[in-house]
Design goal:
Number of strands: 13
Shape: elongated
Oligomer: single chain
Structural class: alpha/beta
Number of helices: 11
Largest sheet: 7 strands, mixed
Strand content: 15-25%
Distance between the termini: 92 Å
Strand order of the largest sheet: 7-6-8-9-10-12-13
């Protein structure tokens, strides 16, 4: 009997010891998890060119999709490049893991002053034109690639073949040259007429419209101003020629279709890019990345006026209508 009691006591002691071992392991695991969580917490600096709604929308998207547990600190350049450089020097001396530059001036300041911390830019048109290339820098493209625009146009305009556009050779000649080549792949012929000043827009537009079936508006500050846009849209609609643009605002004013990027989506995809860089999944240097999720806007009233109903199978691809 004594022997049985001893065995029982040993067994219970063993169970108690086992329980303490389990408790200890759980405590150690929790401590390790805490240490890992603390080590994974990253400081991300957001250097913003100015205080405008579009940038705020992009930053909100960035925070929603960026690294889990990251600590964000925002700095406003206030449109002042010298202030941007001063803030960038401050970031260079901090423990920042990554800098997100929002807008051109923020990116230019970061490029000059920061060389040993990853920089990811967003909300910049044609970043390569501004030489935003460095061993520690990449970002997302704000504009929609030409080939993707043409694919969308082909889907929505299946029977049209002759496209037209106006452009300033000093600003967008390379884009137009690329578009002429890409157009043939999508079954279009693109006729592009040059304008060297806003005053030439009416004359060149009158020469262009009789020879085309659709008008394609590209980002060009010489061609498109607050005054010229209304004239271009009215002139095209008077001839029942659909206009395709790159902003939902054009569609609201009467254009048939726009293929654009949503600022919040720009931020979200920039956040995902930043995460992949910090996780070492992507290594710098890296070419700028196009936005995958595009926004399609259609003016249904214009489509009805032009006698160009939108096929039902395409309605699911439309994000916004007027």
């Amino acid at each position: 009997m004594n022997q049985m009691n001893q065995i029982d006591r040993l067994f219970r002691a063993g169970r108690s010891l086992g329980a303490w071992v389990v408790v200890g392991l759980v405590w150690l695991l929790g401590l390790c998890t805490l240490c890992v969580s603390e080590s994974m917490a990253m400081d991300i600096a957001i250097l913003r060119s100015s205080d405008i709604p579009a940038y705020h929308e992009a930053v909100a998207g960035l925070k929603a999709a960026g690294p889990i547990g990251a600590i964000y600190t925002e700095y406003d350049v206030q449109g002042d490049l010298e202030l941007g450089k001063k803030l960038a020097r401050k970031l260079r001396a901090s423990n920042t893991s990554l800098v997100v530059a929002v807008g051109l001036k923020a990116a230019l300041a970061a490029k000059v002053e920061i060389v040993d911390v990853p920089i990811v830019y967003m909300m910049i048109l044609d970043p390569l034109k501004h030489q935003l290339t460095a061993a520690n820098m990449t970002g997302t493209l704000l504009e929609v690639p030409v080939d993707r625009q043409l694919k969308f146009m082909r889907a929505f305009l299946p029977t049209l073949h002759r496209l037209g556009t106006l452009y300033d050779p000093a600003k967008t000649s390379s884009r137009v040259k690329d578009a002429v080549q890409q157009a043939t792949i999508s079954g279009f012929q693109l006729k592009a007429l040059p304008v060297e000043s806003e005053k030439e827009v009416p004359q060149q537009l009158r020469m262009l419209l009789p020879d085309v079936e659709a008008l394609w508006l590209m980002p060009d500050s010489t061609v498109l101003t607050n005054e010229s846009l209304r004239f271009i849209l009215d002139s095209a609609l008077a001839r029942k020629i659909p206009v395709i643009g790159y902003s939902p605002e054009f569609v609201r004013l009467g254009a048939l279709l726009s293929i654009s990027v949503n600022y919040g989506q720009v931020g979200r995809e920039t956040g995902l890019l930043a995460t992949r860089i910090l996780d070492k999944e992507l290594l710098l240097p890296l070419n700028p990345v196009p936005i995958e999720r595009l926004k399609t806007t259609v003016n249904l009233k214009t489509a009805k006026f032009l006698g160009m109903p939108i096929p039902k199978e395409l309605m699911s691809f439309i994000d916004e209508t007027y």
